[in-house]
Design brief:
The chain is an alpha/beta fold. It is 46% helix and 10% strand. The chain contains 22 helices and 15 strands. It has an eight-stranded mixed sheet. A four-stranded antiparallel sheet has the order 12-13-14-15. The chain has a three-stranded mixed sheet with strand order 8-3-11. Strand 13 (568-573) and strand 14 form a beta hairpin.
Amino acid sequence: MLAFLSNCLFRSWDRGSLWETLLRCQLLFLPVTFLTLYVKYMTVALDWWLLEPERTLNAWAVLPFTAGDFLIGLILLPVAFALFLRVRPLPWSGAFLFPILLLLVFLYIQLHAYYLLENFASGSLIAEGIRWGWKNIGLAVQYVPLTSLAKLCLLLALGALCSYGACSSAQRLRFLISRRVQAAVIGMEVAVLVIAFALRDGRLPYTRPVLVQIASAMTSPPEAPLLPLDVLRERYRSLTGMRVASPRNPYFGTASGSDLILIVLETTPAQCLDLTEGDIPPALSNLRRRAWIGSRHYTTYPFTWTVLYSIATGMYPQEQIGRMGFFDQPSGLFSILYSRGYATAAYGTGLETFLRLLKAQRIGKIEDQACYTGAESIRYYNREWLHKQIASDERCLDLLLKDIRDWVSADRRFAVLYAPQVSHGPWQDLRGADTGRDPLERCRDLVSLQDQWIGRLSETLQRLGRLERTLIVVTADHGVRFREEDPRFRQGRIDSYSFQLPFLLYAPQALASPKVLEWVTSHIDIQPSVLDLLGIREGRELEQGLPVWDPSLAGRTTYFWAARVMGADGFHKAGRFYMLNHHRGTVYANSRMSFDEAHRVVDPARAEDIKREIGQMDEIRRSWMRCAIEGCPGYTPPGL
C-alpha cells in the first residue's frame, strides 16, 4: 500500500491515446459498477417473493433489470471522465483514489440503508444517521453486522487495487492497453449491454438504474407555498372530510385545572400491549377504569422526534428527516400550558436529541443527563445496557416523583413528559441471556416492568391527593421498524406492527367508566383531547386533530407517513387502508393495515387517484408547517 501511494502520489503518467484513457477510466470505475450491480441484486432480492415466488433468484434472473446500470457503469461514467481528462488534462495519480473510495463508502451506506429501510436514504437522513451514530457508537454498531463491514473492507481493497492499476505506467499496463485486449473488452461490454437490453423488463420499476434512484432520493422536494391559514384549513378539511369541532362538546372543561402526565413508551406496538382486552398489566388496568382506550390508535411517523412533534402540536410532522426546522415551532401543548402558569418538565435519557423541540415548546426543566447512572456514553443493546437503562429510567422516575411532591407542596399545576427507554428495540430479555424467546414476549415483560413504574407514579399521586385531578396519557412512539428488532418484520410498506399503538387517556373528572374508541385515532388527536378537557381554547389555531371521543373521526381520512424511512406512505379512509410504495410506484388497498401483492391496486386510474391524494396532503402539511414556523396570512407565531 505504501509503495502504491508513493507511486501514485509522487509520479504521474502520460495520458496516452483516447482508448487507453477510456480503459483506465473503466478500470477506475469498475468497483463502482460492481457495487451498483450488487445493490440492484439486493433491491430485487428483497422483493423477489412478491415478483416470482415460485422461481429461484439468481444472477440471470436479475439481468433484465440491470441494463441501465451496465450502461452507466461501463460506458457513460468512464466515457464522461475520459472526455473530461482529454479536455482538461490531469495526471494519473493517487488523487483519483480518494474520490473513488468515498463514492464506494457512500454507495455502501445506501446499500445498508436500503436493507434496513427498503428505501435509499436522503442526504439529510444520512447526516442525521451519522450524527446519531457518532454519539451512540455502540448502539449504531449493532445495526451494522460484522459480515457487512468485512464486505466493505473487501470492496475498498478492490477500489484501491483498481485505482492502482488505473494510475500505473503504460509499461505496466501494456497487456491491458494492447489493441487485441481493447477490442476484446469492448466486445464483451457491447455483448453484455445487448443481452441486458434485449431481456429488459420495463413492466417493473427495478429497471431504473441504481445511481439514478439514489440521486432522486438525495433531492429535496420543492419548498411548499406559503398560503393563508384559512386556505390551508379549507383544503385540509376538504381532503380529510373532517368537520369543524362541535361547540357542544360534552367534555369541554370537565378537567379544568388538572395536571397532565404524558407517558410515551419506546418501541411498543399494540401487538405487545393491548389495552382493549386480555391480560392488561395491573397499574394500567386501574387507570383504564376511567379512561378512553384507543382500539385503533396510530402514530403519524415511525420516528421518536416526529412523534413528539405530533403529540406536542396536534399536527402531522415534517416528512423530510434531517430538516429540523419544525423543532423550532413555538406553538403547542406544553407552551400553551406554560403560558397558563403550569410547571413543565421532561424526563428521559434520550431527550438530548429533542432539546430544540422541547425548549421551543417552553418545557422549563429537561432531565436527561441527570438520569444516567453510569458511564453510558457508549451503550449496547445487550444485558449490560438493559440493566443500566433500567437504573436510568428508575432514576428519571425518582426525579419526576420528587418534582411532583415539590409542585404539590407549592400548590402549582404541572405538565410533564416521561419517556422511559428500556423497551427500545431490539427488545432485551429480562429473564436472562439469549433464551430464544419470541420478541413480543420479551416486549411484554418490559411493559410489565414499566407498568410497575406507572403504579409507583399513580400511588404517589394518590397519597398526595392529586390522582383525581390529573390527566394521564399512556401511549408509545412507534412499533417495530427494522429486521434487527424482529426478523418477521417486512420493510417497504406501512404496517400495523410499526404504526398501531396502545393509547389510554385517564380522565377521572370526565369519565366514571372505561370507553373503548372503535374508530381510528392518531397522535394528532392527543393535544385537542387534553386541551378540551382542560377547557382551553386559545393558541389552538394550527391543530389538525380532533378530541378522541368525537364520533366524526369515524369518517375522517387519517394519514401515515414513512417514505424516507420505509419507502411508503398511506392513509385510512372509509374503512380501508391505502399504501403507496414510492420505490416501486405501486399502490395497495386492504381492510387492515397489512399489505402484500394480493392487495395491489391494478386499476391505473384508481392507483393514480390514491397517489394524487397522498401528494396533495403532503403539500398541505408542508405548507401548514411553514405557516407554523414562519407565520402566514391569518397566523403569527408566538414571539414574532
